[in-house]
Amino acid sequence: MTTVEFRTGEALADAERWTAHNYHPLPVVVAEADGAWVTDVDGRRYLDFLAGYSALNFGHRHPDLIAAAHAQLDRLTLTSRAFVHDRFAEFCRGLAELCGKDLVLPMNTGAEAVETAIKVARKWGYRVKGVADERAEIIVASGNFHGRTTTIVSFSTDPEARADFGPYTPGFVVVPYGDVAAVRDAITPNTVAVLMEPIQGEAGVLVPPAGFFAGVRELCTEHNVLMIADEIQSGLGRTGKTFAIEHDDVVPDMYVLGKALGGGIVPVSAVAADRNVLGVLRPGEHGSTFGGNPLACAVGAEVVRLLAGGEFQERSARLGARLHDGLNALIGKGVVAVRGRGLWAGVDIDPALMTGRQACERLAERGVLAKDTHGSTIRLAPPLVVTEEDIDLALTHLAAVVQG
Ligand SMILES: *Cc1c(COP(=O)(O)O)cnc(C)c1O
Fold first, then answer.
1. Which residues have CB under 8 Å from 315's CB, separation 6+?
2. Residue 96, pLDDT score
3. What GO molecular functions are on record for this protein (predicted)?
């Protein structure tokens, strides 16, 4: 074993020794990164085609985001919400305007934002819609991924995510993803919300049938039910638009945002909705010590500014077409199916050839980082700053892996 190999090996063993095994990472130990590229502890460079599951939409260490973070670190980092700080309103206003909504409620992680959406929908149900106490129901989709809290895993359909973590929170009804008739049948007078991902990332980048969300929107309006779009992974430029739900020409009642909202620097999440919805919360009913902290707001405001320019959405659409053309050309040549929008793709590798995990290991050996989801599916989600040459390089390596 060379000294070079030694560093990766030791770092992997250390991580294994000192942490709970709730992840099964690829054997790569990253030390530095810039844009779409990362460097490991042994100096090997990799193209990052996962981008922190869309938390790094603007690439690693985008100069504007790093500058915003540095400037804020030198002034003020935390107040708690017991006081107001001078970056708070700027971020909330910018994000509300980006979403076209009246109000924003900032949290930290995606799961917290989903929890916020659930609490707000329930309270709205009781106080505005007039649902009887303790009866609120929320409709969700099979194959969903909304986070890891006990309430959220209560309505997961993935046995790994859910088993052994009960007793489960009641009040959720699961319907097949993409089935409007099933949503219609599931709506009762107690339904307060339909909570879904516009594209299901964890499930393998599943794009619902055309017209599905238009149908859901119509049903929600007709039955006075809140339509909640979990855009934590699909939003903020990933699919070629600011929000993936725009592809369906639909406006939800509430957006749930996270991941890229923190610019790859700090965890920042939020929900955005109009006053008739988010206005139901009163002091003391919900909160977070770190939610909307000055550093988060400084970075988040810069994220909003980057998105308001439209450049990243345009790149995602244009470069995404190149990525999808290249991937589609591999169908029948080791690849069985390709799904997605913009710079986001779920790629089903022929299961007779290898698992998704094996494909990702072989890609990593060739210097491309991606992650498998289920079985033989791998997920590609490069940072939106990726170049055409980067995409072509990744496609060349993927072709070699699936044909090798
Ligand atoms: C990642 C993700 C979450 C959870 O976000 P965390 O920051 O990991 O808590 C929720 N919903 C979707 C769609 C996600 O992709």
1. 343, 384, 385
2. 98
3. identical protein binding; ornithine aminotransferase activity; pyridoxal phosphate binding
Give dist(CA 88, CA 334) in Å, integer: 50
DSSP code of 264?
Answer: T
Give the other-Cβ count within 10 Å of 150's Cβ: 12
> How many Å apart are CA 329 and CA 398, to the nearest integer?
12
**Residue 23 confidence (pLDDT):** 93
Could you tell me if the CB of 233 is within 6 A of ligand 1? yes
- H or E, element range at 343: none
Q: Is the CB of 115 under 6 A from ligand 1?
A: no
Whose CA is closest to 402, among 329, 340, 344? 329
Question: For residue range 44-66, what is the model confidence (pLDDT) as tens digits?
Answer: 999 999 999 999 999 999 999 99
CATH architecture label of 8-62+311-403: Alpha-Beta Complex (3.90)
Q: Which of 50, 53, 54, 145 to mutate to test the pocket of ligand 1 (most atoms within 8 A of CB)?
A: 145
Say whether the peptide bond before residue 167 is cis (omega within 30 degrees of 0): yes
Give yes or no for residue 201 CB within 6 A of ligand 1: yes
Quick check: 81 and 291 in contact, CB under 8 A? Answer: yes
Active site residue 243: no
Instruction: State whether the beta carbon of 215 lies less than 6 angstroms from ligand 1.
Output: no
Q: Which residue among 145, 172, 212, 213 is the active-site one?
A: 145
Report field, pTM of the whole predicted structure over 0.90: yes
Instruction: Show me where the domains of the chain are located.
Output: 8-62+311-403, 76-308
Contact 229, 196 (CB under 8 A): yes
Ligand 1 centroid, distance to 257 Cα (angstroms): 9
Q: How far apart are CA 348 and CA 328, in angstroms?
A: 11
Determine the distance separating the centroid of ligand 1 and the alpha carbon of 116, expressed in angstroms.
Answer: 13
Tell me phi and psi for residue 354, to 5 degrees. -170, 165
The domain 76-308 is placed in CATH, from the list 3.40.640.10, 3.10.20.30, 1.10.220.10, 3.40.50.720, at: 3.40.640.10
Residue 230 · residue 195 · CB < 8 Å: yes
